[in-house]
Design goal:
Layout lengths: L1 H16 L4 E2 L2 E2 H15 L8 E6 L2 E5 L2 E3 L2 E9 L6 E10 L2 E10 L2 E12 L2 E6 L2 E4 L2 E4 L6 E2 L5 E4 L4
Parallel strand pairs: 9-12
Antiparallel strand pairs: 1-2, 3-4, 3-14, 4-6, 5-6, 6-7, 7-8, 8-9, 9-10, 10-13, 10-14, 11-12
Length: 162
């Protein structure tokens, strides 16, 4: 009789071993899935090594960042239709969903420095524009908080020869 009683309790013992997978009525799989969804919603966009390119209507922009933690540097080229080509180097830092830094470039035989801000949106970058201060050969924004980001010329992940 004791053997039958023990055999009857055996399934209950095994099912109780599985009970720690339930948390507030949800399985651990449900909890992990909810955590992944939450992480995706709260994820800060990331800038990847490689090329970001815009090419349309005779305009060409290419940026090849190298990312090291929050530091960013790399070649940047602007070859806009009917404008002088600018070739130089961007050095900056990632702050939230933006890359903020200085673009040092040569155009018409002289070196210039321009503050630049890119907004990271998935696998593309949008360049920021706003009111500027210009002193000598250096251009900076008056207020980074008031920048508008150009949706018309997005730099998208692609191939480039930089």
């Amino acid at each position: 009789m004791k053997i039958i009683y023990l055999l009857a309790l055996l399934p209950l013992a095994f099912s109780s071993c599985n009970s720690d997978q339930k948390v507030n009525g949800n399985s651990t799989e449900d909890t992990v899935s909810a955590e992944k969804q939450s992480d995706a919603l709260n994820a800060v966009p990331t800038l990847e090594n490689g090329c970001y390119v815009y090419e349309k209507n005779g305009d060409y922009i290419a940026f090849k960042p190298t990312v090291d933690g929050d530091k960013v540097s790399g070649p940047l080229v602007y070859a806009l239709a009917e404008k002088d080509k600018n070739t130089g180097t961007f050095t900056g830092q990632i702050k939230g969903d933006q890359v903020i830094g200085l673009y040092t470039f040569n155009s018409e035989g002289s070196e210039s420095v321009r503050e630049m801000v890119f907004q990271i949106q998935g696998k593309r970058l949008l360049e920021g524009f706003g009111e500027i201060n210009s002193v000598g050969n250096k251009v900076t924004y008056k207020d980074l908080k008031t920048l508008n980001f150009n949706e018309q010329m997005p730099l998208e992940r692609g191939e480039c020869n930089l």
